[in-house]
Here is the input.
Amino acid sequence: MRSRKIKNANGISIRWKLILYMTVFVAIILLVTWLFQVVLLDTFFRAVKRNEMQEAADHLTEKLGSEELSMAAYSSAVDHSLCVTVFELGSDHSEMLINVDATGGSFTATLSFEQLGKLYEKALGNGGDYFTRIAFGGFEVEENEGFEKFPFYDATESNSKIPTKNMRTVYVRVVDRGDISYMILMNARLQPLDSTVRTLGTQFVWITAIILVAGLITVLLLYRKISTPIVQMNDSAKLLARGNYDVVFSGKGYRETKELADTLNYASHELSRLDRLQKELIANISHDLRTPLTMIKGYGEVMRDLPGENTPENMQVIIDETARLSALVDDLLDLSKLQSGANTPVMTEFNLTEAVREVMVRYDALIKHRGYLVEFVCSQEVSVCADRGMILQVLYNLINNAINYTGEDKWVSVEQTFANGRVRISVSDTGKGIAPEEMPLIWDRYYKVDKVHKRATVGTGLGLSIIKGILELHDAAYGVNSGVSKGSVFWFELPATRIASLPTEITKEI
Here is the structure.
């Protein structure tokens, strides 16, 4: 029941949405087709005929009184399937000049003089132009009127409307040329239109059936093409959410699903890597926490149970291990703050060269008896604008890292160089170096080059992650140059704000 509720809460599936959208699309297409090819066909046909008649009347008007009138009337009638009649109306006579019928109905001959007179008066009263429809028998239906205007119209009869085949669209134009007036009378049969409408109505039924079947097939194909890879990726994503990082996303079908599958495969790979490295981090931190706690507990029990063991040396061991434990906790807190964005740098201008010397002094008392050689080389006093405390932490962690991994000669070099307005601090060691494929990964907060965890001589093992976070907050360039059995050079750069030449080389033997 619970899974069903969750499924229902997710909304309509893509399959039913495709069916819905396709149904709406097909319905719109069919509606538009029906409106334009069936319902409005008569309206469009009459509009086209009106334009043709007006164009033909304009042409005939230009030819009135010339010998070209007959040829113009013949061309207009044949080209547009019209019946064209031209009357000459004088003060004392009326004469039919031309009568060309390309409709085959001799419609003009069926009109009485009275009906012709009415058409003339209506055209004259309408500014010289008049459109109408006339049924068989001379019954007139104006363009803005319906069939109910006929005197014999009976709404109770199923076939009360006069068939279109008995209707003609009529256009009358009156042209005044002084003492002589001309009346141009044109008409066209509507019978072909009635047959066309019935044909299109029959076709529309077949078109509807074909479009519905085609729409259904299209929906099925689209569903198979679009939704199948999405459904498969959704199932794979559920496995990924359960911790199965070996799942593979397949996005066959189209470009977007392929790109999504590639992104999800990359995310799965990264999650798998981070999960593995996080477990390694937990194991390493547990080891680093357990060691000082064990030593503190052991030395404390010895001092409690054995008389005379409460010596300054034993107390110093407890103090040192407590300090190491505190440093580890501090580094974890610093890393957490950097990742959460809680730490924001406070920019101030300070002497970077002096800051390096200050950091190196901290190692005098700490590893004096271990025989390390730490060398600082610089030729200028350089100032930068940065968070002094954070940069000191970067320097401290870089030197710690070099001391932990340097070679048997225990040599560490810190070098300051200046070029193109930027100062670079480089920290070198003579250790085993880093393989090229591992160099992009060493800055990761969970990564460890040496898979066999050992206790750091100085520091907590989280230094590079903290360095990366601090330098990125400063928009500083950083990197490492290394090779297997060639040692490593870690460096970072900051824009210099002040430079003072001061040739010096300081070597510290620690």
